[in-house]
Description:
The protein is mainly α. The protein is built from four helices and no strands.
Amino acid sequence: MNKGSIVERFWSDYHLLYFYSVMCFVGNSCTRAVLCRLCDEFEEISEKALTTPANTKELMELKAFVENVEMETMYALERKLIHAKSTLVFLIEYTNLSPAEMRANADMFAWYERMPCIFEEHRAIIAAKRTQYEEALKVCLLIMKTLLMWFVQNKQMFRCQ
């Protein structure tokens, strides 16, 4: 082996190692940002889905929001999760992740696994509030009927003379 080929090989290995370390650093920091965004999205959806609506309008808006999340947003988040998982597999093979990074990865998958329970709890909240609002509407209707019957019975008293 001559001296030129050893130096060339050293430089090619050095550049390859440098490229590898840069890719791992960039991939790791990008993955961290993606993880944070995904966890934040799951958390925002969870918080909104588990809020208690104050009135019928909010009830219907919340119900529509969660239906949209279940039908569309969850599929988009699932695709992002699959991409993050592929990146994570690459990083695990070529780098060492800190315990904090491992917990963040575990949190991301845990949020995804928790979502069906969150949607079930949302449906229970919606059902309870719907029943409550229907009962309140029945009471209002009964009061209105009673008042109407009273006005019909006492219409003579309200006639102008």
